[in-house]
Amino acid sequence: MSDALKIAVVAGEESGDVLAADLIRHLGEIAGRDVELIGTGGEHLGALGQASLIDPEDISIKGISAVLTSLPKLLGHIRNVSAEIIRARPDALLIVDNPDFTHRVARKVRAALPDLPIVNLVCPQVWAWRHWRAREMRSYIDHVLCLLPFEPEALKRLGGPEATYVGHRLAGLDSLRRSYDSHCGRAVRPDPTLLLLPGSRSRDAKVLLPRYRKAIDILDELGHRPRLVLPTVSRIEHFVRESVADWPRDVEIMVGEEARHAAFQSADVAVAASGTVTLELALAGLPFVSTYRIDRIAWWAHQYIPVWSTSLPNLVADRPVIPELHDFDGRASNVAREIARLLESEPARAAQKDGFAEIRQRMEVSTHSGLAGAAVLLDQIERGRPDVDNQASVQ
């Protein structure tokens, strides 16, 4: 009989896949046991032996319209993934981000396996909207591993599950620290480099890349012709290459985290899709502009969302640090002028770098985030699922 830990991991997009793989590697080390994986994930979990039950691109969905359009497929995946996890009877379930999918899987698994520990890596943005979700999570999630320093207190205030700020793996990466140090006090070079970061999902890149192309044309009119570099992930590399093949300017495409972080260090400015990559850029000290695609329904609904910013760097700093250009504000002319401002104005660059220093200080932790998260998950496995009623009475 195998002594390996059997862990079900349900992750979707690239950032969640990386975070989960980092935690699982540390879990095996501190448990002193092999780890067998089932569930869903990308290439990083795949490298640890997980054969994903579905294409992770199918659940890397953002925006109300996108969710509604994909609902039949999503519901089918939720049923099938849940059934496979229940059949496997793992030692624990780790769900990562993508709450529209992962939390539905967790509910089904909890109903069938009520004693199975369930840990949520990456806190849902209950602090931003639909606050009632925090209390509801207590019925099917035992512990939340938070990546942002303000989240445990927010969950406690909203009556959510127990939570631990484990830090973000990005804050501890030597590659980003080297980039941050190199950008301190460094001015724009005579032949600057512009990074284009349209996101790790093809549906986002499909919308943002045409905007970036128009912005580059406008930058040319404004007297700026930077070298263009586009870091991407392997699963959409072919799509990205096809998308920029007819651009009038050469675009250097690179794949993988190591290449991306090297590009952060050598670049002068970036334009990026809103998401985890914006936190990477802030921790790397590279001035940038944030863009985002918002579908029409979400644009109408955003007036009811109380959070003041959708940018992770701004939320961590608790003040505006980087410009956010969403849909209507994110038309190419605005994007181009914000990039030009960062190329031309050292005070504008210095203001962002001051904010980045605050973000680094606020996110600092004494233990590697993957190790801290693995320790919490192992503790949940070893002591079993806490009694929900007792937990509720304490809170």
General description of the model:
With 395 residues, this protein is α/β, with parallel strands linked by helices. The protein contains 18 helices and 12 strands. A 6-stranded parallel β-sheet has the order 2-1-3-4-5-6, with helices on both faces. Strands 9-8-7-10-11-12 form a 6-stranded parallel β-sheet, with helices on both faces. Helix 8 packs across helix 12 (276-284).
In short:
The chain is of the alpha/beta class and 395 residues long. It is 49% helix and 15% strand. It has helices at 14-31, 43-46, 64-69, 71-88, 99-112, 133-137, 151-157, 174-183, 202-221, 237-244, 257-266, 276-284, 296-301, 312-317, 332-344, 346-362, 369-383, 388-394; strands at 5-10, 35-40, 92-96, 118-121, 143-146, 162-165, 193-197, 227-232, 251-255, 269-273, 288-292, 324-326.
Features:
single chain; 395 residues; six-stranded parallel beta sheet; 18 helices; 12 strands; globular; disordered C terminus
The global form is globular
- Adjacency order of strands in the biggest sheet: 2-1-3-4-5-6
- Low-pLDDT stretches are 386-395
Provide mean pLDDT, rounded. Answer: 88
Question: Would you spell out the secondary-structure blueprint of this structure?
Answer:
Elements: E1 5-10, H1 14-31, E2 35-40, H2 43-46, H3 64-69, H4 71-88, E3 92-96, H5 99-112, E4 118-121, H6 133-137, E5 143-146, H7 151-157, E6 162-165, H8 174-183, E7 193-197, H9 202-221, E8 227-232, H10 237-244, E9 251-255, H11 257-266, E10 269-273, H12 276-284, E11 288-292, H13 296-301, H14 312-317, E12 324-326, H15 332-344, H16 346-362, H17 369-383, H18 388-394
Parallel strand pairs: 1-2, 1-3, 3-4, 4-5, 5-6, 7-8, 7-10, 8-9, 10-11, 11-12
Helix pairs in contact: 1-17, 4-5, 8-11, 8-12, 9-10, 9-15
